[in-house]
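Quick question, first post here. What does this chain look like in 3D?
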Amino acid sequence: MKSKRKPVAKKIGNVDLKSSTLNMLMNIAIFILVVVIIFLSYSIYLKVFSITPEEIAETRDSERSEIIQVEVLNGCGIPGAATRFAEYLRANKFDVVSATNDKEIDETLVIARTQNMENAYAVAEVLGVKKSNVNQILNDDYFLDVSIIIGRDYYTLKPLK
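> Answer (accepted):
Ran it through. Tokens below.
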């Protein structure tokens, strides 16, 4: 006669492998749930208390940028004027990306290429250009903040005084 014995779980030392594996899986599941709860709580916090993208854009467009990228165009007809103005702007902490020739104009113009007019006003102030000569022409193809066209009135501007 064979005796009927109950199956005994494998034990290593005093540890039951079946229950320790189950405990480990439960701990992993609890950890994953805690991570999901933290993520969802953070998402709710951002939705309720954070600023909207429109508010961020509005703030960004009303303050002068730390780095202002500038294009200098020589519209006065004097050779080297764009280079001289570019050097002056670089000395005043502007990032001049190009200095080239353009068609001749009478008055110097500062053109804002982004929504942020403060950048254009900052450049105009450094050069001594009247605020009435600051315009805005948006162009998505331009990857700069401000264009300057130096006019025949170049001798009245700060770099040459």
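The domain at 64-160 is CATH 3.30.70.2390 (Alpha-Beta Plaits).
DSSP finds four helices and seven strands in the chain.
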